Amino acid sequence: MSLFTADFDDIRSGRVTDVYFERTLKILEAKGIRKNVRAEFAAKSLPSGWGVFTGLEEILRLLDGFPVDVRAVPEGTVFRPSQPVLEITGTYNDFCRLETPILGLMCQASGVATKAARCRIAAEGRQLVSFGARRMHPAIAPMVERAAYVGGCDGVALVKGAELLEIPAAGTMPHALVILMGGLVPAAKAFDEVIEPEVGRVALVDTFADERFETLEAARALTDRLSAVRVDTPASRRGNLREILEEIRWELDRAGFPHVKLFVSGGLSEEKILELNPVVDGGYGVGTSVSAAATIDFSMDIVEVDGEAVAKRGKHPGAKHLLRCRDCGAERVIPMDRPYGDCAACGGVVEQLLASVITGGERTDDAPSAKEIRSYVLRQIHRVSLESSS
Do residues 353 and 70 make contact, with C-beta atoms less than 8 angstroms apart? Predict the structure, then answer.
C-alpha cells in the first residue's frame, strides 16, 4: 500500500515531469544534438510585490551528482519580479526532465514562506505559530511547515515538521480533549498534571460556553500556571471577534489575572492579524492562509546556448548578476560581463547575490540550518511592507 505520491527516486529519475520534456529529449537524442545552455529561474510578476525564495536545499539534493553548474541566491532571499534566483548551466539533455520538479520545489515552498513572512510583519513581534498542516497532503506537510518556519513563524504544530526543524512542536489543546474530559476545567487540570512543565499552559476557551466565562474558569483553576487562553471560535459564532477579545481581557484584568495572554487561531489572515493586534498580546496560530498560500509562478528560461546570449520573447538573454547594497538594500540586475562598483544610491558596498552552489555536480558549500535561514529572512523583511496584497 502507498499514497498517491512520488518518492525521491521517481522525481530524480525524471518520471515526475511534463511529457513534452520527455519528447524533447527523445528528439534531441535522435538528432544527435547536445548543446550547453544557461537556464535561469525567475518570477515575472509577484502578487505581493516581493517574495521569499525557498526550496533551494531540496533542489540541490535533487541535482546532486548531475553534470551541471548551479548558481543561486541564498535560500530565504527576499526577491522581486524578474530577478533571477537560480541558474543551471550544463548540457540541456542532462537536466531537461528535471525542470518540472525543480519548479514545483521552489514555487510552492516560496509561496508558503512569502505568506508566512507577510504574517510575521503583520504580527509585529507577537508569537506566530503554523497550524496549517491539516490542510495539506500529509506527505508534503513537513515541507510546508519548514517553509512557514523559515518565512517567519516562530513554531510549528506538526510533530514531523518540528523534528525536521529541530525545534519543539508548538500547540495547546484541541476541542476534542475538552469534550472527552467533560469540560474545560477538568481538561485544563489534566493537561497541567500530565504534560511536561516546560510546555506552556494554554487553555482553549470556546468549546461549550461564552469565551469570557470559560476563560475565568481556566484562570481560577490554574491560577499562576495559566500562561494564555486560546480563542478559536468558529465563524458562525464569532460576531465581532475583536470585541469578544476585549471582553475577555477586561474580565481577566478585573479578576486579577493580567498575566494571562490572549492567543487567537482559526481563519486568520494578515489583514485579520492587523485588525486584532491592539488587543492580542499572546500571538496567533495561522493555518490555511499560510499552508495553502498561492504558489509563486517561477519559470525556467534558456538565456544562453553554447555561449551565445539567446532567449524567447519577453525575456532578457545572457548571464546576469543580481546585486544588492548591504546598506540601503538597493537592487539591480546587470549583464554578468558588466563591471559594478559601490552603490549608486548611497555609496555602500554592493553584493552579488547569485553565487556558485554546485560545480560539476558537486556541492560547493554546506547547507545552512532552517534557523539560520529564518534569521536571514527576518533581517531582510524590515525593508519591505504589506502594501501589496496576495
Answer: no
Residue range 312-342, pLDDT digits in tens: 999 999 999 999 999 999 999 999 999 999 9
Q: List the alpha helices (DSSP H) in the chain.
A: 8-12, 19-30, 56-63, 92-95, 99-123, 141-151, 159-165, 175-180, 184-194, 211-222, 235-238, 241-254, 270-276, 288-291, 370-380
What sign does the CA torsion over 39, 45, 47, 50 have? Answer: positive
The β-bridge relationship of strands 68-72 and 226-231 is unpaired
**Order of strands across the sheet with 308-309?**
308-309, 298-305, 36-43, 86-91, 68-72, 355-359, 362-363
State percent of the chain over pLDDT 70.
98
Phi-psi region of 236 (alpha: psi -120 to 50; beta: other; left: phi over 0): alpha
- Whether the model pTM is above 0.85: yes
C-alpha torsion sign, points 99, 102, 103, 104:
positive
DSSP label of 64: T
Task: Tell me which residue has cell 500571538.
Answer: 283
Of 285, 286, 298, 269, the residue nearest 111 (C-alpha): 298
Contact 206, 231 (CB under 8 A): yes
Kindly report the backbone phi and psi dihedral angles of residue 387, in degrees, each rounded to the nearest multiple of 5, phi listed first: -60, -40
Residue 188 sits at the vertex; the CA angle it makes with 263 and 269, to the nearest 5 degrees, is 20
CB 160 within 8 A of CB 142: yes
